Amino acid sequence: MSLVDPREAARRDHARHRGTAPALIATICFGVLALAAAAVLGFAVGGVFEQLRVMSINSVFGSWETETPIAFRAWGLPLGILGLIVSLGLYGTWNHRYSGRNDSFVIVGPLTIVLAGLALGTWLATTMWAEPDAVGVAVDPVFGQNETWGIGAWVLYAGTWWLPGLFALLTVLSLIGRVLASRRRERNGRIVEQLLARGVRTEAEITEAPLPEPSASRMIVPLVARFSDSAGVSRWVACTTALRTRDVPAVGARRPLVFDPADPGDVQRIFLSPAGGTDPSSFEPVRAAQ
Question: Are strands 284-285 and 234-244 parallel, antiparallel or unpaired?
Answer without folding.
Answer: unpaired
